[in-house]
């Protein structure tokens, strides 16, 4: 997991959760337990797509793939890898 | 009355699927047997006519069985939001004098805490497994029928059967009692208006503890021999979890196709999320004959995007806890956007001026409903009842107008509710909790437009003089007392709350 990718992901999440401080958002923290609700979840997906210039497939938009910073970064790395191959 | 209708349906379509959920599908005959068995079980616990049965469950088959078993016993059914915290659940369970609480293992401990603090004897029933100090739901499916009390059925149908709570402008929510007869009329009106038949399959995505899910999913399907398809709870490693709807979208599209759903009742947020389905995702929604939105006004943008994505125009339904479903828009495409349609069969709507006179077409006034589906009033609120329920009509407090074709348009709501992800939250309830914090002098809660859709709850707080408040402390304080979806996501501290010269809070200045 690259540090840059991780920090950018954290920035996107923290922008949606203004009450959460950076030190409380660990790599494995369940971001939904921090208060990411239905409205924010939708925004998270759009914000990540914009920030990383990727497009998530419908079957990739699962709870498991977006539950933690680690999982999100893994998904983005996979997407970016596929993009580079193309 | 409602259970007797289920018996008739089961006689007519014994082998037809009544309920589909991921654990098991059950036929009408099986449903009727389970309802009879569980009503015997409840009776064995001492539940009698007019006793209150609280149900704290997400949508599931056992919710439906409990509903009809309560109807069979002429007991009172109190469906509660399963996301409520101890303080909220405790209030409703005690206010309604519940004798039984039906829940699942996820919430059993919470319910036990509430019961242990109550001075009354309350039985706890768990639907998914046995836990200490509770009775397992399926151990209460008793075969032998004890002699039923002989009562005057018509009189019983006029007693309160359903308790729901409607948010109030001040203080605690108002208890709304509705009878089996009210619900019977409501489902018949809806059936006649929307032509519901036994060949329909209704997908239930909205909570059945709410009037929308109860009336337009549970009753609309099972009263007519149709099939009720329940979106099961999300499970992670076997544990049920609440997750944002976006993560259920694929499953919903799958269910519509697999089960050949014909009717989809939902809320604007759900239609909005479905409309965002990427173009390259295959989704066959051709089985749908009616999609309708209730709970809040459907934005034109959502309507247009859903139609562009799936070729289906979402209709609007207007209703309230006090009367159930009131109007529905069933017109085809060529009509002005924004109407909530015409009154359901057997429902009368008038627009009334401040002076109490009926207003002509096109003029805005208060929406007044006359229907056999109406509650008789709020529990223990005689002054309010006098104002809201005069002459057999319900004065909604909502503002609207009717056009020449009889279509209703809502132009203003009496309650300031925040719509957060399809759930409506009363800001007053959150303010009441905030004001119990010793360091808070004033608090106002508003909804601010979210990044994507819907609103985010924001609390503006004036601390007590010489006291300091931390965001996290306030957030934790709310989390301990309010369901997660009600906790403010934005907390702002100010020296004072902006007010008009007359002292009215200027909420718009806080958004």
Question: What does this entry look like structurally?
Answer:
Chain A has 4 helices and no strands. Chain A has helices spanning 3-16, 38-52, 63-66, 69-85. By secondary structure, chain A is an all-alpha fold. Helices cover 58% and strands 0% of the residues of chain A. Chain B has 511 residues and is α/β, with parallel strands linked by helices. Among the domains of chain B are: 28-176, 3-Layer(aba) Sandwich (Rossmann fold), CATH 3.40.50.980; 418-510, GMP Synthetase, Chain A, domain 3, CATH 3.30.300.30. Chain B is built from 14 helices and 27 strands. In chain B, helix 14 (471-481) links the parallel strand 26 and strand 27. In chain B, helix 1 (2-12) packs across helix 3 (61-72) and helix 4 packs across helix 5. The longest helix of chain B is centred in the N-terminal third of the chain and has 17 residues, at 28-44. The radius of gyration of chain B is 23 Å and the shape is globular. Chain B starts with a helix and ends in an 18-residue tail after the last strand. In chain B, 47% of the residues are buried. The chains are: A mainly alpha (86), B alpha/beta (511). Chain A binds chain B through residues 16-19, 21, 32, 35-43, 45-47, 55, 57-59, 61-64, 66, and chain B through 234, 236, 241, 243-247, 249-250, 253, 269, 273, 276-278, 280-281, 420-422, 450-456, 471-472, 475, 484-485, 487, 489-491.
């Amino acid at each position: 997991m690259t540090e840059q990718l991780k920090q950018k992901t954290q920035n996107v999440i923290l922008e949606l959760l203004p009450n959460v401080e950076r030190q409380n958002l660990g790599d494995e923290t369940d971001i939904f337990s921090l208060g990411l609700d239905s409205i924010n979840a939708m925004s998270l997906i759009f914000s990540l797509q914009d920030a990383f210039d990727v497009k998530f497939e419908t079957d990739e938009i699962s709870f498991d793939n977006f539950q933690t910073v680690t999982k999100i970064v893994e998904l983005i790395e996979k997407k970016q890898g596929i993009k580079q191959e193309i | 009355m409602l259970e007797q209708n289920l018996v008739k349906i089961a006689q007519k379509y014994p082998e037809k699927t009544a309920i589909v959920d991921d654990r098991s599908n059950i036929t009408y005959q099986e449903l009727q047997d389970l309802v009879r068995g569980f009503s015997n079980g409840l009776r064995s616990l001492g539940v009698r006519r007019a006793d209150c049965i609280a149900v704290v469950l997400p949508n599931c088959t056992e919710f439906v069985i409990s509903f009809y078993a309560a109807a069979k016993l002429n007991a009172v059914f109190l469906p509660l939001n399963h996301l409520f915290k101890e303080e909220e659940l405790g209030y409703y369970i005690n206010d309604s004098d519940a004798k039984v609480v039906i829940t699942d293992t996820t919430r059993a401990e919470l319910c036990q805490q509430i019961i242990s603090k109550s001075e009354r004897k309350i039985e706890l029933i768990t639907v998914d497994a046995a836990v200490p100090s509770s009775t397992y739901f399926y151990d209460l499916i008793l075969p032998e029928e004890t002699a039923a009390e002989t009562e005057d059925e018509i009189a019983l149908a006029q007693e309160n059967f359903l308790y729901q709570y409607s948010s109030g402008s001040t203080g605690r929510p108002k208890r709304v009692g509705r009878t089996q007869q009210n619900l019977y009329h409501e489902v018949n009106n809806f059936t006649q208006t929307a032509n519901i038949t036994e060949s329909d399959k209704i997908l239930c995505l909205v909570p059945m503890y709410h009037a929308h899910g109860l009336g337009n999913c549970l009753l609309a399907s099972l009263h007519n021999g149709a099939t009720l398809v329940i979106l099961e709870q999300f499970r992670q490693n076997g544990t049920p979890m609440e997750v944002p709807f976006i993560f259920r979208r694929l499953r919903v599209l799958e269910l519509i196709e697999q089960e050949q759903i014909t009717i989809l009742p939902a809320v604007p947020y759900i239609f909005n999320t479905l409309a965002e389905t990427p173009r390259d995702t295959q989704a066959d929604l051709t089985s749908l004959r009616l999609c309708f939105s209730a709970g809040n006004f459907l934005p034109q943008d959502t309507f247009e995007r859903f139609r562009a994505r799936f070729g289906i125009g979402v209709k609007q339904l207007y209703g309230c806890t006090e009367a159930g479903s009131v109007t529905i828009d069933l017109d085809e495409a060529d009509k002005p956007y924004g109407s909530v349609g015409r009154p359901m069969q057997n429902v009368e709507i008038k627009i009334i001026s401040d002076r109490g006179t009926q207003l002509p077409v096109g003029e805005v006034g208060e929406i007044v409903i006359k229907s056999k589906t109406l509650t008789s009033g709020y529990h223990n609120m005689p002054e309010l009842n006098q104002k809201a329920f005069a002459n057999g009509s319900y004065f909604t407090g909502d503002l609207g107008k009717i056009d020449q074709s009889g279509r209703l348009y809502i132009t203003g709501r009496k309650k300031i509710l925040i719509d957060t992800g399809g759930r409506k939250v009363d800001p007053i309830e959150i303010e009441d909790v905030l004001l119990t914090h010793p360091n808070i002098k004033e608090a106002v809660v508003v909804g601010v437009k979210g990044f994507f859709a819907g609103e985010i709850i924001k609390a503006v707080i004036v601390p007590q003089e010489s006291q300091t408040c931390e965001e996290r402390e306030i957030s934790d304080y709310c989390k301990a007392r309010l369901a997660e979806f009600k906790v403010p996501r934005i907390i702002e501290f100010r020296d004072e709350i902006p007010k008009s010269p007359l002292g009215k809070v200027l909420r718009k200045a806080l958004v």
